[in-house]
Amino acid sequence: MAVARKSRGTRVRHLGLAGRTGTVLLAAGIGVLSPASVALPAWAQQSSVAPDAGGYYATPPPVDKSKKPVDEGKPDKTYEKKTECVQRSKLGGDQVDIKNRPWGQEYLQIEKVHQLMRGATGSVGANVKVAVIDTGVSAHPYFGGRVESGGDYVATPGGGKAPGLEDCDGHGTEVAGIIAANPPDASIGFRGVAPDATILSIRQSSQNYEEAEKKEEPPASPGNSAPPSSSNNPGSQLPPSSGNGAGGGAADGTAPGQDKGGRQQGQGKTAGTLKTLAQAVVRAVDKRANVINMSVDNCRPATGSITEGEQQLQAAVNYAVDNDVVVVAAAGNSGDKCPQNDQPDPRSPKTIVTPPWFSEDVLSVAAIDDTGGVAEFSVHGPWVSVAAPGTKIISLDPAEGSSSLANLTIEGNGQPGAIQGTSFAAPYVAGVAALVRAKFPGLKARDVMTRIKETAQHPAAPGGRDNFVGFGVIDPIAALTAIVPSEADKAKPVQLPANLPPANDRDPAPMIVALAGTGGGLVALLVTLFVVHSVRRNRPAASPGRKTP
User: Fold this and answer.
1) Looking at 114, 140, 171, 380, which residue is catalytic?
2) Which CA distances in Å does 187 have to 98, 101, 183, 305?
């Protein structure tokens, strides 16, 4: 076998330059004649959508700062409650707290993160304010009074509540719980990522509130008063509660039915538009938030254009980051209202989701499931920054007066299902951003965003990112401890304390003798091997017909 290899190697050497050139040309010709045998990259394949030429598809236009809206601090229209607010529901058994720790917390090692933060700073996110722009946040006891009123773009809350502190839908309370909930019972596994942080609640949207219809009073008959109509009775306009929530015992829960298209802006007559979302971002900045979480999106077909509302939101998030506020947004959930970006050319998305589209100023968060893979509902796109757990969620029960947790939601068909969505992946990232801000107060917003991306668990893709999980699943421990290359120029020498132990001045002679002996032995071995090899090479070959002893 060795002879065959040698002979083959000799023939290759004899081919020379001309032979090698011919071989290369032959291989190239075969490649040209057989294009079907070579797989083309995704961007080179034929796309069923318009190419990104002359329009804005994967990348939005530059920021027009003049579009930053003026915060009016009130709803853009008159909205009325059309659906009963979320209520606690039991499918059997007594209401009890869910004891098990969510898989997402285990995956991200949140318990170790909390230990690290307490050792490094003495708290877990204290003095950091996270604005939750959502459906409002209820004053759940697990917040420990750390929820501030930020404003309301839906309606004046009932019951004398402050603006932003009514959550009729339940969505915002669940989101805020993942960020900052802190149950007093140590036996409860669920904890917010930054349980000492403050929540600034801004109610900006609601699917339970809809635009008020203009009412026309019918003319009264002479001498007779018109009978009271059901429209004059606010209670009769509200359909009976669908029992938003589910469970008893380990399956205890509550929540609004999750729209499979996500919490969409400007859908039908429900409260919440890009205009008020942009104003809410400006408001959060002006109220000195350190981090903004938006688990609400606008999804539309990619047309190569940008709407006025999108321009306002783009200017608003740019204003936030320029004023040292980290902006986090959910990547969006695919569904009937938001088709998945599964076209061959990722540079020509068929669906645009904002605010994730503005990834220069936004941390756009995709969702993973408990297998570690991207969740099937998580919208793909070139704007995805990072990913976090977004399935089988446990969070606060948002029902009025509840002091428990929730892990199920009642869908439109009346059946209980797990709480899931990119809406709940985003607050994991917002919580980590709050901790980074607490541990590294000197870092600016863009530095915090970069640190979170650079320390993520990068996918095996060019540049360490793809359109499914961006730069990868967040790694909170690394985000709080790693040395990030982009911050090398910010590193400063640290003066060591004067009470360090004395230097190790042990006698080096024994080590020198040991190393010298080892080196001498190695040299002797090499000399011996060389002599043996030389003797064998110079030994005369045996004569034919004569036996060698």
Assistant:
1) 171
2) 9, 10, 9, 52
**Is position 134 annotated as part of the catalytic site?**
yes
- CA distances in angstroms from 363 to 121, 357, 387, listed in the order given: 25, 10, 10
Tell me the HSE value of 95 on the side-chain side, using a 13 A CA sphere.
Answer: 14
21 forms bridges with which residues in the sheet?
none
Give the separation between CA 333 and CA 326, rounded to whole angstroms.
22
Instruction: For residue range 236-272, list pLDDT tens digits in order.
Output: 222 333 333 333 333 333 434 444 444 667 667 899 9
Q: Which one of 149, 205, 359, 423 is the catalytic residue?
A: 423
What does the alpha-carbon distance between residue 389 and residue 426 come to, in Å, rounded to a whole number? Answer: 9
Phi–psi pair at 386, nearest 5 degrees: -145, 180
Note whether 370 and 391 are within 8 A (CB). Answer: yes
- CA-closest candidate to residue 275, choices 205, 329, 325: 205
Kindly name the residue from 52, 71, 134, 475 that is annotated as catalytic.
134
pLDDT in tens, 173-193: 999 999 999 999 989 999 999
**The dihedral formed by the CA atoms of 165, 170, 174 and 180, expressed in degrees to the nearest 10:** 10
Give pLDDT tens digits for 381-414.
999 999 999 999 999 999 988 999 999 887 666 7
Region 494-500 average pLDDT: 54
pLDDT in tens, 329-376: 999 999 988 999 999 888 899 999 999 999 999 999 999 999 999 999
- Does the annotation count 14 as an active-site position? no
> Is the whole model's pTM more than 0.70, yes or no?
yes
